[in-house]
Amino acid sequence: MTENILDSYTINRQMPENYIEGELDFCKDEFSYRTYNVQLIDLKNCIVNKRGFIYEEAKFRLSKINLIDEQLYPKFFSIKHYIKRVLVKKKRVLKEGNYLLAYDDWTNAHYHWFCDLLPRLFVIKDRLKDYTLLLPDTAYVRDQGLKSLDFFELRPAAIEFIQEGELVKVKQLSVLTHTCLSGYINDKIMQDMQDFISTKVDYSHSASRKLYITRDKARYRKVLNEPEVLAAVKEFGYEVIRYEDYSFKEQVALTASAKSIVAMHGAGLVNMLYLHPQGSVLEFRRNKIYHNQCFWHLAKALRLKYYYLFGTPDDENLVIEGEGCNLTIDITLLKSTLAMME
């Protein structure tokens, strides 16, 4: 059985506050896009692994229902793969009950947990009590993941963790499909999440803090001239922070007290979820080549003011996303953008 939860619709993305005509033409396809039909699909007699792969026993192959992009897994659809990786492997049989799967191969990454998985669960928030939720067993999910489920009051009847290399056999499985292509945002769901956050965070006082998120401990996507950048942002009253130095609750409280965030493209920008509703975000990016404009989409979905600043990459062939390039930031442009944000 397939139940339609939310219909597909078109999003026409509002331009950044400092948009210059033609400057974003390299990602023109992202100016407008369609979300997915969000569906709850009931399956029987399935095998699931830690990556969120679903194998229907009767079909002897990997199901496409929960894949991020089927083109990423060309070798996984053959009978040979099924026999070698599934059929002959030992399986843990789960006790009878209603199980829900809403995670995928990328869920263990911070952005994908908050912007892909949580929206899928939030759209059926009131029905989670009817399911045992399947999740990958990782340190991230056990820590930040469970804390975020508690914060958003996403409370399934139970949670069943799947271990590395493990296959679990499920008699009754419901799959909650993706809300949109990863890297895009389903605005309706994200705004519902933002409205919920406003019931948990005190926005009654005007936010005044300004936060600069440093990646000085990261291995990649670093600001190469960060001493000069720090001097510039401090002139405008910014505090320099590392979100990893704070607990989940402290991150929420800190961000809720701020009116603006400046950061290199990275997971720390996910915390704009808790930013004051009239807040501003400045993202350091690169131009010409890219995977997606995920934080522009997120900021505008949250009705925040979004600014971008292109840095000079240390490798012209690298995108900024993932284990991407490092950037040198033009300090004059930075100061003029910060002044605009004021």
Key descriptive features of the protein:
18 strands, single chain, 342 residues, globular, nine-stranded mixed beta sheet, alpha/beta, five-stranded parallel beta sheet
How are the secondary structure elements laid out?
Blueprint: E1 2-6, E2 10-12, E3 32-34, E4 38-49, E5 54-56, E6 61-62, H1 79-87, E7 92-93, E8 99-101, H2 110-122, E9 132-136, H3 139-151, E10 158-162, E11 167-176, H4 187-200, E12 209-213, H5 226-235, E13 239-241, H6 248-256, E14 258-264, E15 280-285, H7 294-301, E16 305-310, E17 312-313, E18 327-328, H8 331-341
Parallel strand pairs: 7-11, 8-9, 8-11, 9-10, 12-13, 12-14, 14-15, 15-16
Antiparallel strand pairs: 1-4, 2-3, 4-5, 4-11, 5-6, 17-18
Helix pairs in contact: 2-3, 5-8
Structural shape: globular
Give the SSE order as H and E letters.
EEEEEEHEEHEHEEHEHEHEEHEEEH
Mean pLDDT: 94
- The radius of gyration computed from the alpha-carbon positions, rounded to a whole number of angstroms, is 21 Å
User: Termini separation (Å)?
Assistant: 53 Å
Total beta strand runs? 18
Strand content: 15-25%
* Fraction of helical residues: 25-40%
Count, helices? 8
* Stretches with pLDDT under 50, minimum 5 residues: none
- Biggest β-sheet, characterized? 9 strands, mixed
Question: Structural class of the helices, strands and pairings?
Answer: alpha/beta
